[in-house]
Amino acid sequence: MHISHATVLHSSAIYLSPFTSTTFKSSQSNHSTRHYTLILRSHRRSTFRFSPVSASDRITMGDTTVNAVYKNANEPIESRVKDLLNRMTLKEKVGQMTQIERKVASSDVIRDLCIGSVLSGGGSKPFDNATSADWADMIDGFQHGAMESRLGIPIFYGSDAVHGNNNVYGTTVFPHNVGLGATRDPDLVERIGAVTALETRASGVQYAFAPCVAVCRDPRWGRCYESYSEDTQLVRKMTSLVTGLQGKPPVNHPNGYPYVAGRNNVMASAKHYVGDGGTDKGKNEGNTIIPYDELENVHMLPYLDCIAKGVCTVMVSYSSWNGTKMHSHRHLITDILKDKLGFKGIVITDWEALDRFYEPYGSNYRSAVSSAINAGIDMVMVPFRYQLFLEDLTYLVESGEVSMARIDDAVERILRVKFAAGLFEHPMADRSLLDIVGSKPHRELAREAVRKSLVLLKNGKDPNKPFLPLNRNVKKILVAGKHADDLGYQCGGWTSTWEGTSGRITIGTTILDAVKQAIGDNVEVVYEENPTTQTLSEHEFSYAIVVVGEAPYVESGGDNSELIIPFKGDELLKLVAQEIPTLAILISGRPLVLEPSVLETLDALIAAWLPGTEGNGITDVIFGDYEFHGRLPVSWFKSVDQLPMDSSENSYDPLFPLGYGLKSKV
To answer: Is there a contact between 521 and 565 (Cβ–Cβ < 8 Å)?
Structure first.
């Protein structure tokens, strides 16, 4: 092919001296090589314009593509996917199917192996208290490696931004999902998604592992707080988070096709497919033993809503359905999710899911890879043993155990999402977003969410004499309980670290801080984590605010068959309430046992769930600036012997039913 003159209008522009004859080679789908000569006829110009070439004759110089369809943002996404897929070697394809942890990632590894994605495991960060700018620096460094690869395919970086961009210091941390379920406000949840997307993109992260659309049928499950509700229809409404995170698709957007509106949005992940909230006895990663009709009508319906909203990825559950691990369940992943429901995005594993296939942990890895990929998994969250994964998957393809068609389906989906997300046009972090991280408008939204999430369970020993709202102009009040002044406990798991932790873990307002800000100037606040009988007798308190609850937990570490209030919370409540009129605030990811002797002693009781960084949302309501809004998203049992409960059964006999919630004004 003879080229007379050209100006290279591309980010990978080629600069050659005048009167130079240069040989190019063109990559074809069958990996054959054609040679062309570029003759430069004019010494008067330092840039050159290639004359048009056919799609079959797109040019590469060395390993750098030029004027390729896949690099043209004006081409249809499917044309770009096809063009790029046809250029890729097997090594590059399996690299794209690999997601690795930042601790083992480097720009060289990403470049040389064409790695498709990098993630932070829970709590994995550049360093302690790393800001959004620090994260962006790290992720851009990884992205430079991807852009230097032969085909320049960008990575996407994933993070557990499940209640705000909660891994990053100084961000806005919203209530966990169970609290948002109590708001029953899909518009609020969509707005939270939009703010989460902005703060997440500011850190360079393009992919949030949210929302969890599990339908929690048993509060003994350690991930109960990640579920919006035990009610499938309420969970379906809360899939509005997908629209907040990704943006709203246009009216004519094809069902099941991934969608990201722009640089202010992130890829979302509907998880954990499917039945994770229905395991036997609430065991995390357990077995969901139900017929298909129940699986479909209770646990699968929220996925239809996420798919209709253009969700980019679906994450598969560690759990099993009737004894078969979901990660190897071809019928549910391929036949149902992909074929019947029409999902065109990425099906991704959970963390080290393939290592969980066999005992001992991590054994028979090649067999696990084969089972998962043949079941329809597109991307594997490896996250550490990537060399072994790449070696085993390559062997399985070359031996015929995994077909090239299955690989191409996976890579098509990965590329489709990357093009839909605009990563080829805008691979790097947008530093203009840094100033809005943790901003006042964002924190005000979180404060609104806290207000609306609070469920008033009791208000006065006499129903006709409400205890709330509290008088903010009394002489002296007692605040007690560790949870009253512990931001980490207030936020719960998946905050700063994987498990969550205690103390001033980020920027925020504790309940004690908020009380001090809300009361009158002449009111004395006495705070004792565990007040003594001497304290109670020596002071004339008008009332007490006692805050008790759970310590942070995640996943299997939160499985709990007893569900009593930790830290002897019952004893603290009784000690104080027997002496002083008492408002109890329960900080927890689920209902806990409320003994009748405790409940009778209290003047008022609020379920505050895991409210996040904005404790002022609680004082907004208890002092009467706003009315209570929240209603129980889950049934509150009398005894763990009643679990699991089903509100549709005749035997349903809760302490407080699904949907219960009082107002402070009679």
So the answer is: no
Query: Cα-flanking dihedrals φ and ψ of residue 236, to 5°?
Result: -60, -40
First-residue to last-residue Cα distance in the chain: 86
pTM for the complete prediction? Answer: 0.91
How many angstroms separate the CA atoms of 279 and 217, rounded?
8
Active site residues: 350, 555
Q: What is the pLDDT of residue 666?
A: 58
Burial class (CB in 10 A: 0-12, 13-18, 19+), 73: exposed
Parallel/antiparallel/unpaired status of strands 64-66 and 59-61: antiparallel
In degrees and rounded to multiples of 5, residue 33 shows phi and psi of -120, 130
- Residue 455 sits at φ, ψ, to 5 deg, of -115, 120
For residue 50, what pLDDT is reported?
28
What is the amino acid identity at position 146? A
Q: What is the mean pLDDT of residues 581-586?
A: 98
Which has more pLDDT, 666 or 535? 535
Other CB atoms closer than 10 Å to residue 441's CB: what's the count?
A: 9
- The 3-state secondary structure of 637-648, one letter per residue: CCCHHHCCCCCC
Q: Taking residues 574-591, report their average pLDDT.
A: 98
Q: Residue 66: what pLDDT?
A: 78
Do the Cβ atoms of 204 and 138 come closer than 8 Å?
A: yes
pLDDT tens figures, 70-108: 999 999 999 999 999 999 999 999 999 999 999 999 999
What integer pLDDT is reported at residue 60 of this predicted model?
40
- Rounded to the nearest 10°, the torsion over CA 513, 517, 519, 520 is 140
Please state, in angstroms and rounded to a whole number, the distance separating the CA atoms of residues 270 and 379: 15
Residue of 96, 379, 420 lying closest to 258 (CA atoms): 420
Quote the percentage of the chain above a pLDDT of 90.
89
* 520 close to 477: Cβ distance less than 8 angstroms: no
CA geometry: angle 249, 250, 256, nearest 5 deg: 50
Residue 354, pLDDT score: 98
Q: What pLDDT is recorded for position 463?
A: 82
Cα angle 502, 133, 446; round to 5? 50
DSSP 108-124: HHHHHHT--EEEPPTT-
> To 5 degrees, how large is the angle CA 563–CA 568–CA 571?
115
| CA-based R_g, the chain, Å | 28
Pairing relationship of beta strands 380-381 and 604-609 according to DSSP bridges: unpaired
Q: How far is CA 75 from CA 11, 125, 416, 550, in A?
A: 17, 37, 13, 53
For residue 665, what pLDDT is reported?
A: 84
Contacts 24+ apart (CB under 8 A), 108-112: 108/145, 109/145, 109/386, 110/142, 110/145, 110/146, 110/149, 110/155, 111/145, 111/146, 111/148, 111/149, 112/149
Angle between helices 404-420 and 365-375 (to 10 degrees): 70
Three-point CA angle 219, 658, 316, nearest 5°: 45
Distance separating alpha carbons of residues 295 and 308, to the nearest angstrom: 19
Is 26:38 a contact under the CB 8 Å cutoff?
no
Interatomic CA distance for residues 465 and 472, integer angstroms? 18
Q: Which residues pair with residue 157 across a beta bridge?
A: 118
If one compares 375 and 464, the residue with the highest pLDDT of the two is 375
Maximum distance among all alpha carbons in the chain? 99
Is the pLDDT assigned to residue 268 strictly greater than 80?
yes
The residues near 440 (Cβ < 8 Å, ≥ 6 apart) are none
Q: What angle do CA 14, 79, 8 make, to 5 degrees?
A: 15
